[in-house]
Amino acid sequence: GNSVTQMEGPVTLSEEAFLTINCTYTATGYPSLFWYVQYPGEGLQLLLKATKADDKGSNKGFEATYRKETTSFHLEKGSVQVSDSAVYFCALNDSGSRLTFGEGTQLTVNP
Amino acid sequence: ETGVTQTPRHLVMGMTNKKSLKCEQHLGHNAMYWYKQSAKKPLELMFVYSLEERVENNSVPSRFSPECPNSSHLFLHLHTLQPEDSALYLCASSQASRDRHSPLHFGNGTRLTVT
User: Fold this and answer.
1) What is the DSSP secondary structure assignment for residue A78, as one 8-state letter?
2) Chain A interface includes B51 (CB < 8 A)
């Protein structure tokens, strides 16, 4: 079956630090890959996505590249802000209506 | 209003109560979902409705009963819950198809506490 494995948190960084949150996946087909973000007290929001190998998704300074050879979709940001503090979820979809989520990584950015 | 709206935001209920969670989407989507989010556990998909028909039910106890009267509205009826059912219940919608690119759009959830 499908699965998503994320870097364990929590991750604590200082403002303007470089961020990487690792995500690897197992899928039987050719999935689309997503990163979602959940701010405190809110639901999940789509942050970025990539639909085929070597695609790069980007949004709000975050980037992730779909690497088929390493089955990875690591999330990166060059300079984090306090407002980026949230829980980040990696997810995949290879069958239409069902997303498989990772367990989430809590990020805290200190001023 | 836009997006996916869930009510109430917070709910406290006793184990013998009956209550309902409501979700409404204004995105023109044709699929809706209930997820359960518990502390220190992965997101759990509970139910999926596509074109108003339930297409997935992931071994959810019968004390949870979903209802989808139309493509814009989704309910989760609750009765005789247990304390371990306390969690954040998230509703989501998407444009269902064989297209695996369609992302989910989530509401802000209902924080349920069972006493």
Assistant:
1) S
2) no
Q: How many CB pairs under 8 A join A and B?
A: 59
Of A44, A49, A104, the CB nearest to B106: A44
Enumerate the residues of chain A whose CB falls inside 8 A of the CB of residue B43: 89, 101, 104
A97·B55 Cβ contact <8 A: yes
The residue among B91, B76, B89 whose CA lies nearest residue B32 is B91
Is B48 within 8 Å of A103 when comparing Cβ atoms? no
pLDDT values of chain A reduced to their tens digit, one per residue, 111 residues: 889 999 888 999 999 999 999 999 999 878 999 999 999 989 999 999 999 999 999 999 999 999 999 999 999 999 999 999 999 999 998 776 678 899 999 999 999
- Burial grade of A24 (CB within 10 A; 0-12, 13-18, 19 or more): middle
Question: What are the backbone dihedrals phi and psi of residue B83, each rounded to the nearest 5 degrees, phi first?
Answer: -55, -30
**B20 to each of B63, B77, B109, how far by Cα in Å?**
11, 4, 13
Work out the end-to-end distance of chain B between its first and last CA atoms, rounded to an integer number of angstroms: 32
Q: Whose structure tokens read 């995105």?
A: B27
Q: Could you read off the pLDDT of B5-42 as tens digits, one per residue? A: 999 999 999 988 899 999 999 999 989 999 999 987 88
